[in-house]
């Protein structure tokens, strides 16, 4: 197993498949329609522009198993030290500790970039993701009831956060 830095040319198709599976079969993403390769191009461009990593994991044969990334939490300047992350594992490879591995990589990357808070926004019914975050030290920081509507029902969303020691010297402006 190896960690890779994802690129559009090598990984967009695999990431798109994982995201679309989550859209169609779960409440991990509150989208209704599958994404397109055009939306992936814009997603990769936004990650590159913001200097946000896309961290993947491949097996020894090169099969893409999952990815993690983060991006801006909110689009206001004072949130510059806070990011919202996502972790997705291909359904074929779940239960092998890849979520933990990817979460550790995301946390390490955020620390290197001197972010202070990492936020996970998790569907309240996603017990596996919640447990993963709690084991890594994330704390529940709020619930928005009926935040989404998908599959004919109202969905609650939980916010979990991990506070890092970085940056050493935060600045205003």
Main sheet makeup: 7 strands, mixed
What low-confidence regions span 5 or more consecutive residues with pLDDT below 50? none
> What is the N-to-C order of secondary-structure elements (H for helix, E for strand)?
EHHEEEHEHEE
Q: Kindly state the percentage of residues in helix.
A: 25-40%
How many strands in all?
7
The CATH architecture comes to: 3-Layer(aba) Sandwich
Structural class: alpha+beta
Average predicted confidence as pLDDT: 97
Strand order of the largest sheet: 1-2-3-4-5-7-6
Number of domains: 1
Examine the coordinates and then state which fold CATH places here, giving the name of the CATH topology: Aminopeptidase
The top level CATH class name: Alpha Beta
How would you concisely characterize the structure shown here?
The chain has helices at about 10-25, 35-50, 100-110, 125-135, and strands at about 1-5, 55-60, 65-70, 80-90, 115-125, 140-150, 155-165. It is an alpha+beta fold and about 170 residues long.
3D structure, described in words:
- The protein has 173 residues and is an alpha+beta fold.
- It has a single domain, classed as Aminopeptidase, CATH 3.40.630.
- Helices cover 32% and strands 32% of the residues.
- The protein is built from four helices and seven strands; from the N terminus they run βααβββαβαββ.
- The protein has helices at 8-25, 37-50, 98-112, 127-135, and strands at residues 2-5, 54-58, 64-72, 82-89, 117-123, 139-150, 153-163.
- Strands 1-2-3-4-5-7-6 form a seven-stranded mixed β-sheet, with helices on both faces.
- Strand 2 and strand 3 form a beta hairpin.
- Helix 1 (8-25) packs across helix 2.
- The longest helix is centred in the first third of the chain and has 18 residues, at 8-25.
- The termini are far apart.
- The model has no long low-confidence stretch (mean pLDDT 97).
